[in-house]
Structure formats: C-alpha cells, structure tokens
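Hey there, shall we discuss this one?
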Amino acid sequence: MQPYEAVIGDCLSSLVPVGKPVALFDFPTYTNVGDSAIWLGTIDYLSRHRTTSRILWVGDGSVHDHALPSLPEDCTILINGGGNFGDIWPSHQVMRERLLLAYPHNRIIQLPQSVFFGCQATAEDSRLIFSQHRDFHLLLRDEESFAICKSLYECNVVMCPDMALHLSQLPRSKEPDYDVFALLRTDKERTVGFSAPEGFDWSFAKADWVEQQAGPFQLTYGIFGEFFSRYPSTARFFTAFRRRLFTSLARERLLVGFGLLSRGRVVVTDRLHGHILCTLMGIPHVVLDNNYGKINRFRKLWNTGTDICHAVPSLSDAYERVDLLLMSPRSTSVISP
C-alpha cells in the first residue's frame, strides 16, 4: 500500500480544483483530541499541496443559529472529517445539511467519515436533502460506511484514509510514567467501563482525553468564538486570525493527547484516534472497539498499526494481552523507556 499521505493526495487531487479558494467548516470546539488531529491533518494537506489560491474561510460547527459567510461559487467547501456522520451526533449532521442547502452552487466535500444511522427514518430524511445538491462528494474511511452511503445517496462516494494520517510520524512527548495507560471512552460510543484488573502486577493509569482541562487557547476561543459566529466575515485579517487561533487550539489539544498516550509503555484504548496517534508515535497498544465497530472497520481496510496494534474483544482480554506484551522479551525491548 502507498503511504497514507499519498493515498489522501490521490483522493483529493481530483476533487479540490487547483488555484481556487477553499472554505473549511466544522472546526472542533470541544476537547476531543482526535477531531483536532483530523483538522491539523487537513491543514497540513492544504499547506503542503498548495492546491488552492487562498483559504477563504475557516469556521466551527456553530452554523445553526448564525449567518453563514458569503462565498463565491468557485470556492470549494470542505467539511472536517471524523466519526459524526449519521444520528449519533446529530448536531454535526444538521450542520452539514444546512451547508448543502445554503451553498447549492459550490462544490462541497465531506472529508473522511465513519457512518452510523440507528434510525432508518433519519437516514431517509438525509437522503432527501443530500439529493438536492449536484456537486457533493462524500469521502468515507471504511467499507461498511461506503456500502451504507453508496446505497443511500446518489452523490460521488470515495474511499479515503482518515485525515490525521496526513500528519508525520510523531515522537513520544515524554518518558512513560506507567507500564499501562488506558485511554477509554466516557461518551455515548463507549462499550466498556473501566475496572481495575485483578492480580495485575503492572503499574497503570486511566483517563479519557475529553475530560482534560482547557488550556490558554481554549480560553481565548471562549472569548472570541461567539464574535466569530455572529460576524462571519471573510476579510483576510479575520480569516487569518481565526485560522491561527484554530490551529493553535488544535495543536494544544494534540499535545494533550501526546502527553496522555506517552504515559504508558503500552496503551489500551477504544478510541480510533488513540489507535491512530499510537501508530504515528510508535507506541504498542491494544484496541477495543466502540459501539458500532468503528476501529476494526477502519483497521481492516487500511491495515494501520500492523506490528504494534493488537485488537481484542473485551477489557479482560486487553489486560491479558498487555500482560503478554510486557513480559515478552521482544516486546519489552521495543517498549522500554
């Protein structure tokens, strides 16, 4: 397989017109490190490929109650990728549906997503809205999502890796504090609750990165965010300021993720970007799955973390695998600080 950056480049090169402006929507204002990694991977792609004349607009997801920017028809609209396409996180779906209705003459590209609809009626409602747009392109990061959308929508549906994989390989940010660090979901996609393993001789800690405290850039966004939403100017100064603030905030969150994952010689996680960042950082890790199989669907297609990732069905199996990894001479030589 080609390097992931090359695959992403192949997917987007035919969709993003050369020399034309772009607008990027749905910056993650919340503390999920994974969505910030996706945003940074997208900015990295746009910066390195220089396929556009100008990033005309960067905005967050607060388009429900505020005016949208006035964009020329040759501006390509990019919507940040992630795992929020469907009805688990409805505010994101409402946002993208509003964009499709508001910009009927612009090319709109939904960057790579995982898809889940728990309600067929909601899926059918979305079909009606999406079918009205003649230049919508939907990028998907697993085969199951591709199959759902291929049967549901008439738009161009494309397979593409997660945009966070456009980031370069990343070093640990610190030496490990523990033998095992567990990054486990606390939101509606969780399938396991943390329980301390019995008879486990290794040191361990746990956290979920959405529970981490806000940093200075998050506080700065809290001051200016409402202003950005109420006054959607595309003037160069405002766009440059928003882009710099968003990028700094995303990097701040990514550093939080690096710090958490670096705490363990081995990581246990049920977050897709816990897996992706561990892969980029070279950290051995054991993965459980979320409530609709997002991680294994993704890994099955893109073969990420081949030598350092171990998939298991339960938390008890995860601890058993960790025990083997930490006791193995070969694994210990790889993961020792």
Observations:
- The longest helix spans residues 236-261.
- The mean pLDDT is 88.
